[in-house]
Amino acid sequence: MVVKIKKLLGQLRRALKDYEMIKTGDKICIGVSGGKDSLTLLTLLAQTRRYYPEKFEIHAVTLKMGLDDPDFSSVAAYCESLDVKYTILETQIAQIVFNERKEENPCSLCANMRRGALHNIAKELGCNKVALGHHRDDVLETFLMSTFYEGRLHTFSPVTYLDRMDIHLIRPMIYIEEKDIKRLVKDGQIHPVPKTCRIDGHTNREYFKNLLHTLQQKNHDVKNILFGAIRRAGKDNW
């Protein structure tokens, strides 16, 4: 297990260096949903904080969605064990999306509202950066979704500056594969809280996740090829 953590720490540190994600004095808000990806990001940044040459602070934030919320006490205890400040923000996002708006395709509105709430609490906490738990598979899935639904070759950027909020979004796990995160969970190093989203597993993203899995069964290197193509295209796709 130690070897796997070291591998992920190395991949995270390479992303931090390649895209100059963290500078000395940064105060970083980590969006922690309680899922495997955000808990892995929290774990890796908490460990990186100890030895990284650029000294920075981290503050974990969980958004309560206002409907069927899980118990986040285990996340609070984990943050305490890592010596990371932790804030839970009460919202009514799920209530609005599912009960008031009754969205047929709720993911986009939900994501926009969660981003807005997270950015606002980050500013209130005095953070200048927000770290999100997107991994390499998320990069590929987003690229395919943009291609098929928007007709453009695009995916999210490793670093994004939001001038209206004066906040940088960083995605330190873009080199980390989802399968390695799942191994951390399987080995008992990460303990996600139960998922409570009503449409979990039935989204457009899930379709493209399954599509990539099918493609990889025919060509085991397809994810590496696609990710390499995105990186070579550089700013036109990030």
How is this structure best described in words?
The protein is α/β, with parallel strands linked by helices. The chain has a single domain, classed as HUPs (Rossmann fold). About 50% of the residues lie in helices and about 15% in strands. It has 9 helices and 6 strands; from the N terminus they run αβαβαβααβαββααα. Strands 3-2-1-4-6-5 form a 6-stranded mixed β-sheet, with helices on both faces. Helix 3 (about 75-80) links the parallel strand 2 (about 55-65) and strand 3. The radius of gyration is 18 Å and the shape is globular. The chain starts with a helix and ends in a 5-residue tail after the last helix. The model has no long low-confidence stretch (mean pLDDT about 90).
Overall tally of structural domains: 1
Query: Quick one: CATH class?
Result: Alpha Beta
CATH second-level architecture: 3-Layer(aba) Sandwich
Instruction: Report the helical percentage.
Output: 40-55%
Shape summary: globular
Main pleated sheet: 6 strands, mixed
What's the helix count?
9
Number of DSSP strand runs: 6
Rg value: 18 Å
Strand order of the largest sheet: 3-2-1-4-6-5
- Beta percentage is 5-15%
Looking at CATH, the homologous superfamily is HUPs
What is shown here, in short?
The chain has 238 residues and is α/β, with parallel strands linked by helices. The protein has helices at 2-18, 36-51, 73-81, 93-100, 107-124, 136-150, 178-186, 204-218, 222-233; strands at residues 27-31, 57-64, 85-90, 129-131, 159-162, 167-170. The chain has a single domain (2-236), classed as HUPs (Rossmann fold, 3-Layer(aba) Sandwich), CATH 3.40.50.
